[in-house]
């Protein structure tokens, strides 16, 4: 029984570590968020993400761009050593923002998150010293994904999200409509060949078809 328990524990550790690591998805970082592709169509990709640990911060703003700028430096300060261990943490990708569905000129709460490296997916990460920064886990989820290049701004995100929503509505796919995720894979210093994504979280079984 003890041997069996130990084996189960080892498998759980290996499964958790497998959510973050090195793959072809890692564009500029050693480690990135890993996923399973459920299906790919001409309009979008459907992925499954396991539960994973992030360091995050919230910012209330009218615009995603302003919220992202303020929140980014708060999190960068944390991984630069402003934590209770004074430890520097390697940057990973993507940087993900939870974007609320709001009307024009309506304030919303934006959540920016840095993915924690594999070692902190199993071990306890350093605690933030800034009370606006916190550690949390996202649940398992299936997401509809559309990629785009250039810079992730409120306009490019809104345009891409609108195209993806239209495609999903045309095939009767169910997804969460009160928020979506914007994911960026590049350093702010990267000027060309940038990669960004919009994620819409699937509700129920994802639909793997197109409107064509």
In DSSP terms (H or I, runs of 4 or more residues), the helix count works out at 4
Sheet with most strands: 9 strands, antiparallel
Rg: 18 Å
Order of strands across the main sheet: 3-4-9-11-10-6-7-5-8
List low-pLDDT spans. 1-17
Question: Which term fits the overall shape?
Answer: globular
CATH superfamily: Regulatory factor, effector binding domain
Order of helices and strands: HEEEEEHEEHEEHEE
Beta content: 25-35%
How many beta-strand segments? 11
Overview of the molecule:
The longest helix has 17 residues, at 154-170. The protein has 212 residues and is α+β, with helices and mostly antiparallel strands. The strands form 2 sheets. The protein has a 9-stranded antiparallel sheet, with helices on one face. The chain has 4 helices and 11 strands. It has helices at 2-17, 64-79, 119-122, 154-170; strands at 20-21, 32-33, 36-40, 45-49, 52-61, 95-100, 108-115, 133-138, 141-148, 179-184, 196-201. It has a single domain (2-201), classed as Alpha-Beta Barrel (Multidrug-efflux Transporter 1 Regulator Bmrr, Chain A), CATH 3.20.80.10.
Concise structural overview:
By secondary structure, the protein is α+β, with helices and mostly antiparallel strands. It has four helices and eleven strands; from the N terminus they run αβββββαββαββαββ.
């Amino acid at each position: 029984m003890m041997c069996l328990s130990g084996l189960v524990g080892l498998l759980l550790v290996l499964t958790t570590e497998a959510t973050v690591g090195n793959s072809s998805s890692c564009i500029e970082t050693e480690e990135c968020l890993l996923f399973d592709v459920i299906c790919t169509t001409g309009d979008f990709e459907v992925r499954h993400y396991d539960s994973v640990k992030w360091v995050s911060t919230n910012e209330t703003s009218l615009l995603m761009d302003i919220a992202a700028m303020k929140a980014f430096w708060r999190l960068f300060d944390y991984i630069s050593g402003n934590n209770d261990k004074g430890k520097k943490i390697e940057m990973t990708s993507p940087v993900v923002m939870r974007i609320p569905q709001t009307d024009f000129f309506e304030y919303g709460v934006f959540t920016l998150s840095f993915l924690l490296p594999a070692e902190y997916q199993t071990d306890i990460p350093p605690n933030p010293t800034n009370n606006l920064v916190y550690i949390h886990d996202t649940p398992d989820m299936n997401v509809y994904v559309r990629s785009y290049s250039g810079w992730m701004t409120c306009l490019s995100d809104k345009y891409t999200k609108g195209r993806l929503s239209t495609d999903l509505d045309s095939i009767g796919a169910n997804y969460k409509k009160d928020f979506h995720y914007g994911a960026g894979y590049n350093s702010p210093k990267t000027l060309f060949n940038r990669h960004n994504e919009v994620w819409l979280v699937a509700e129920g079984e994802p639909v793997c078809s197109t409107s064509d």
